[in-house]
UniProtKB/TrEMBL annotation:
It is found in: Mitochondrion. Gene3D superfamilies: SIR2/SIRT2 'Small Domain, TPP-binding domain. PANTHER family: NAD-DEPENDENT PROTEIN DEACYLASE SIRTUIN-5, MITOCHONDRIAL-RELATED. GO terms for molecular function: histone deacetylase activity, NAD-dependent; metal ion binding; NAD+ binding. This is Deacetylase sirtuin-type domain-containing protein. PROSITE patterns: SIRTUIN (PS50305).
Amino acid sequence: MLDLPSENPISQPSSDLDAFCNILLSSKCPGILTGAGLSAASGITTYRGTNGQWLTTNPMEVASLQAFQDNPGRVWAYYHPKRDQCIAAKPNAAHYTLASLSLPSVRSRIFRKLLQPDKPPLYVTQNFDGLCRRALDETLDNAQSPDDRLDPDERDAAHARLIEMHGSCYRFTCTQCKCVKTTAETPLALVFNDHAVIEKAKNGEETIAVEHLPRCGGPEWSGSNRYGRCGGLLRPGIVWFGEIPEGQGEITRILTKVDVLLVVGTSSLVHPAASYATTVKKNGGTVAVFNLAPSQGDDKADFVFYGPCEKTIPDLLEHAEQLLANAE
């Protein structure tokens, strides 16, 4: 379940890029865990860093099932503008670099000892902004090498290895008929055109009537009660605090085999993701953290590299490629 862990002391891991690249190049089962810091350069506000959203907003008031049941208008007033921000954003260099690991030509160069060379690394993101998936789609669509032009089954396999554990801002579930829908359309209800009302509702100063919120069947719902058009209240397809994140079975199954874990742009404060580094370490693996600044999760890492991940992640793969070139 999504929860906050207790505090742990911060240690001082290594920042030796050569040493880490040599370990990465020998990995048999690499894994990736990303958080809000990955999308910071794309203009998506983080949660716990400088100017983080949770510094001014109580997450329990907008990011829990109880909050939605008590005041769905306030929750939607928080998420709809956030969703618009995500839709308008574009993946950055870090997104594309990580997505490139799904290309067979890149994997065959960087990871020469993979246990399953035909499968991309496990790629878990805590972000619901959709940028990891968009970067993956663009990377696969624009592949130049014949080896990287995947057939439909191979593309499905690449998509399956990317797990959006906290859901997606593009997805919604009807609270009545339970229909699940995915769309990039906006606004989802006419009330979201009134920015003054939305701001007041987000701050708890005004209540938005349920009939004005997103509903199954869309803004022009005609009164039908059919599945997928029943007029029921929609809820964001986001995993809230107290709910079970998506893909936990698959994550747990693969994580026990991961020997190198890249932790990118996350403070490692939210469980269960906060425990992934510990799992890898207990199994004898190596953990490398890539963050803008020191964070609580650093104490679980063998390596820590500070700086904007849109620079450090591309630099990592470039450095690894250079080491390979020098060795040949």
